[in-house]
Design goal:
rod-shaped, single chain, mainly alpha, 79% helix, 8 helices, 236 residues
Length: 236
């Protein structure tokens, strides 16, 4: 711990600023990893098959209950938005699809761009520290008396090296994690786009004739009260 504080004191104000940037980067990384790999992850194929089976069986009410149970998942929330318009005309269903995707995509993409920004900021702060250290070194050469010149020159060089190293220590892991998270984000968006398109096609397909509220909800066109299903859907 003593060595750490000595290192930070050598790096100066810029070094502490880089450290704060690193803390913010770490918090953001943890939040996005939890969201993209755990909270939003699900077995999309199994979920799609379950909803498709319910829709083909004219059990849209149960499909809606299933989606409501998993509404914390963007894909399930998008399905619910589309299924709520299952009894409407094709144009309304397509509009529901667009609305569902416009709501789901920001959940996958939010705050991730800040990670790239913080990595760049850390690199630039390291460069700023380098310049600051060089300024101190030149000042030592130009102004200091011979007895103190060597010490001040070494101090300026150490500030340059410490801040450069600290900036890279923050920026390199951040950029690597950013690449993995962007890949995961794009994968989830593609998955949601594919599944929502399939659901929309299913609802508007000629293979499902007379998709009206009366056929979907036969009890006077009102969705019956059902016990929520207990699907065994595993998160991926």
């Amino acid at each position: 711990m003593t060595a750490f504080f000595a290192f930070m004191n050598e790096s100066g104000v810029v070094g502490w600023t880089i450290l704060l940037t690193g803390v913010g980067t770490a918090i953001l990384c943890v939040e996005r990893v939890r969201a993209l790999y755990f909270h939003y992850g699900m077995n999309a194929d199994e979920f799609m098959n379950r909803v498709q089976t319910l829709v083909l069986s004219r059990k849209v009410d149960e499909a809606l209950v299933l989606c409501s149970q998993m509404e914390s998942k963007p894909l399930a929330k998008a399905f619910k938005t589309i299924l709520e318009k299952a009894d409407r005309d094709d144009e309304t269903i397509f509009q529901a699809h667009d609305i569902a995707m416009s709501e789901a995509v920001p959940l996958y993409t939010r705050r991730l761009h800040y990670l790239s920004m913080l990595a760049n900021v850390a690199t630039l702060l390291g460069l700023l520290g380098t310049i600051h250290g060089l300024i101190l070194s030149f000042q030592a050469v130009a102004q200091a008396d011979p007895a103190a010149k060597q010490h001040l020159l070494a101090n300026g060089i150490s500030v340059s090296m410490y801040t450069t190293a600290l900036g890279l220590v923050v920026a390199i892991p951040a950029m690597v994690l950013y690449s993995f998270l962007v890949s995961r984000q794009n994968s989830l968006i593609e998955q949601a786009t594919e599944k929502c398109s399939k659901l929309t096609e299913l609802l508007t397909s000629a293979h499902i004739p007379n998709l009206t509220r009366q056929t979907l909800f036969p009890d006077n066109g009102v969705a019956p009260s059902v016990q929520p299903p207990n699907p065994n859907i595993k998160a991926s």
